[in-house]
Amino acid sequence: MTTTTTVAAPRVDGEQNPLRAGLPSSRITDPCTIVLFGATGDLTMRMLMPALYSLRVHDMLPADFAIVGYSRTQWSDDQFREAMKRSIQQFGADVGAPEGAIWDDFVRRLSYISGDFDDVACYESLRKHLEEDLSEFQTRGNVLYYLATPPVVFGEIVKHLDLAKLGPEDTKGWCRLVIEKPFGTDLVSARKLQSQIERVFSEKQIYRIDHYLGKEPVQDLLALRFSNVIFEPLWNYRYIKSVQITAAETVGVEQRGGYYDRAGALRDMIQNHVINLMTLVAMEPPVSADADALRDEKFKVLRATRPIPAGRMDEFAVRGQYGEGEVAGKEAPAYRSEPDVGAKSNTETFAAVKLSIDNWRWGGQVPFYLRSGKRLKRKNSEIAIEFRNVPHRLFGEMGDQFEANSLVVRIQPEEGISLSFNAKYPGQAMHIRTVSMDFAYGSGFGTKGAPAYERLLADAMRGNQTLFTRWDAVEAAWEVVTPVLEYWEDTRAKDFPNYAAGSQGPKAADELLAREGEAWRQL
Amino acid sequence: MSVETIVAELHRLREAQSDHEVMGSTAATSTLIVRCAAAPNATGVSEAARRMAIAHGARLILLISGKGNVQANVCAFCGREGTETVCCEQITLPVDAGDPSAVLGDVDQLLLQGLPGYLWWNGRGLDQPLFSGLRRTAKRIVVDTSVEDGDGAGLVELQRILEREPHARLWDLAWLRNAPWREMAARLFDDPARAKTLASLEAVEVEGEALADAALIAGWIGTQLGYAVSKKSAQFKTPTGGRVSFTYARSAGSESVERIRLRVRDATFQAERQGNSVFLSVRSGGEQRGRCEPFVQCATEQLVSDALFGLGAESAFRQSLKLAARLVSR
Fold first, then answer.
1. Does A15 contact B192 at a Cβ distance shorter than 8 Å?
2. In terms of C-beta density within 10 A (0-12 exposed, 13-18 middle, 19 or more buried), how is residue A73 classed?
3. DSSP string covering A177-214, please?
4. Residue A389 exposure: Cα atoms within 13 Å on the Cβ side
5. Which residues in chain A are closer than 8 Å to B217, comparing Cβ atoms?
């Protein structure tokens, strides 16, 4: 008798590779050319090129790829290659020295175009590069444009890609656009930029990058919320008293004084990174892990975010600017003394806002406190969920000295999760003490996650938009912060500078929470 | 050495650690049971097991079987895990060749009660009562079917176990070790034009050290393509009623797999190990085109650690094993 064993599996169907189904996502399969606009800038040098080389070293890049740098600096291909080698040596900490067969193969795929971003001839040159890559490196005409330039030229570049027939309509393969933050400087400018881009690229082809979303603990927040049964029943206004999201830096504006003085903390951090984190904390469970299901839920949170009432801005938003002080034992200058910053600058280097979400889960009753600042006491990015206290204190006066539970997701510098709860102190008396369960990523799994830019570049090449921000969410986030921005622009801060470098931030930020009987977590 | 003596020794070790103020926390979150044959490989295995115990905070029970003058002993060892110093207890127990199961009672008493146990069954003997007994104490188990006696006997035994115990969390190192080969086989068909040709696959040929490795790769290909296996002919049956042959060629002294060759109607796709690379090629109409790809294989210790402490359930392994066991059990 003949017996057979049958298993259900994908059949050979269409052009999908059935052998790839279910394999751990490792190498990116689609060949492509990556065009880096702003190829001589800080972002390319510090982040993008080391990330691309690391992907190559770890055998993640497709077998067939090419990289074209495009910038104003007058360089030859060889000068560009040399500069990229130096950038990998300096900033590519974990990839080893760029040498040997892997580097030789990588570097021959680099080429460079020097020119202005509105120079039609340069786009013709870009076309030739893409055609050469198609023939020499078998890129199948797939192209990923990465705008690592100052935001002011985003629209210009997209317009010229279209004019030169290098947009999605005219490329042989897929065509995607990666855009760095900030996407606009306020609601009006963001809408204008979006209208320029959407004339050429559809939403499915646009990847608005927020590198915070590529960080391991941010994604683990999703795992924490949606792969554990113990948190979801408590994740609402009945059990959560408040949420604090902090993105604190010890650095000042470094070489970005010119940009930062036009932006400020609210635009630079709160409108994108911090609000994105808030949406992940507050959203409903998505129906699946696919990009749009997740982004639908994030958008709903922003739609439910209560607008800050005009005329009461100071009750909901606080700004600060650092004066001179000391950070980690070193003297730090005042913001107004930093290079390219005006001596009477009104720009905030610290921002804190209190938001509420009017939906079934949060009921407008849970304040979301968001803060971000430069030159603060400690570098610390975290999400802290503060739970309500027990309804009845059972243990009398001696036992009453305990805090409500809190759950903290640490994003940087030490990635991990802490849950605090209360336990009896050993002894005859009923003393209760708050203790903490700590999980540290560094030692917990014995393996490192991918750096944010590596992950996001790889996702863009794979066509996975999950960790990129959709236009509706960008627009909604601007709607939340623009009234504050306008108010601050119209009202000069008379007390600037109002916090010393190396401190916890301005006193007004403490007062923002003190009014509710709360306090910021210590940095 | 009796269990009582071992427990007393463990207690004495903890006190000594406390008296000498050893700066480190004693790990007590799980028990890692490692069975291995006596020298020469016991040293390497026990060192790997110690590193795993430190990384995962486990008490280590080392079971040494085979010839050799192994004495039961207890010791503690410490190592760095991140910024922490972690200390672990190690209990070494000889397995009596005449009555291997006799050690089971001792193991049971030395498990950290209420905490998970993990078993690395290193070496042959999936049909032994000792393995059967240890399975009951372990939450996750890793074995290696490629070292079993007989052609593919380990695959058949493992499949038999999993049919009886479908909820067992059991991994095969032969499967884990071949992950890079599955990736290489997939790369041969990433080009959409080539992916289509899999519909006309006629033969799967694998060359390597052990039949288990080869059969698991063939089983995986069959799983991905929705094949069944006819027990009578040890061939694949395609969903459209076609036949695909499976051939294994032994290359002694090689590491795991050396070559995978997939023959379709008008072409041959091949992945061949060349030192630290794999040469991926397509031969069609007398012409061959190919390229080298880096071949990155994890160390056994990492694979075991992933299997015991990291990986989730993977249905592809179960399905591939099912087909592989069919292929070898003629």
1. yes
2. middle
3. EEEPSPS-SSHHHHHHHHHHHHTT--GGGEEE--GGGG
4. 9
5. none
| One domain, residues B16 and B94 | yes
Strands A325-327 and A416-424: unpaired
A19 and B185 in contact by Cβ < 8 A?
Answer: yes
Assign a CATH topology to domain A32-180.
Rossmann fold (3.40.50)
Q: Which residue of A has its CA nearest to B326?
A: A5
What CATH number does the domain located at A213-449+470-514 have?
Answer: 3.30.360.10
Distance from the Cα of B309 to chain A's closest Cα (Å) equals: 9
| B38 domain-assigned | yes
Structure tokens at B44: 């390497």
Paired tokens of A451: 């750096």
Which phi and psi angles does B211 have, rounded to 5°?
-60, -35
Complex ipTM, two decimals? 0.88
Domain end residue (candidates: B78, B111, B138): B138
The domain tally of chain B equals 2
Residue of A nearest to B238 (CA): A11
Is the dihedral angle over the CA atoms A280, A283, A288, A294 positive or is it negative?
Answer: negative
Question: Is B187–A10 a contact, with Cβ atoms under 8 angstroms apart?
Answer: no
Which residue in B246, B221, B223, B220 sits closest to B233, CA to CA? Answer: B246
* Per-residue model confidence as pLDDT tens digits over A92-104: 877 888 888 889 9
Residue A100 touches chain B, beta carbons under 8 Å: no
Q: Is pLDDT above 50 for A242? A: yes
- In tens, the pLDDT along B266-322 reads 899 999 998 888 999 999 988 988 888 888 888 888 899 888 887 666 789 999 999
**Helical segments of B78-152, H only:** 103-110, 129-135
**Residues A204-223, mean pLDDT to the nearest whole number:** 88
CB atoms B189 and A20 under 8 Å: yes
Instruction: Quickly state the pLDDT bin for A394 (edges 50, 70, 90).
Output: confident
pLDDT over threshold 60, residue B24: no
The answer on B181 and B130 residing in a single domain is: no
Question: For residue B171, is it within any domain?
Answer: no
pLDDT tens-digit series, residues A10-22: 444 446 889 988 8
User: DSSP label at A272?
Assistant: I
Residue A99 is predicted with a pLDDT of 86
Q: Do A59 and B83 touch (CB under 8 A)?
A: no
Q: Any idea which residues of A carry the catalytic annotation?
A: 273
Structure tokens at A13: 């169907």
**Lowest-confidence pick of A115-119, A253-257, A369-373, B238-242:** A253-257
Mutation target for A interface from B51, B80, B183, B190: give the one with most A CBs within 10 A: B190
Same domain, B226 and B285: yes
| Residues B111, B187 share a domain | no
Query: How close, in Å, is residue A16 to chain B by CA atoms?
Result: 6
**HEC readout, A358-413:** CCCCCCCCCCEEEEEECCECCCEEEEEEEECCCCCCCCHHHHCCCCCCEEEEEEEC
What is the pLDDT at residue A427? 81
Indicate whether B90 pLDDT > 50.
Answer: yes
Look up the domain containing B281 and give its range.
177-298+323-328
**Boundaries of every domain in chain A:** 32-180, 213-449+470-514
Angle at A372 between CA A369 and CA A378, to 5 degrees: 110
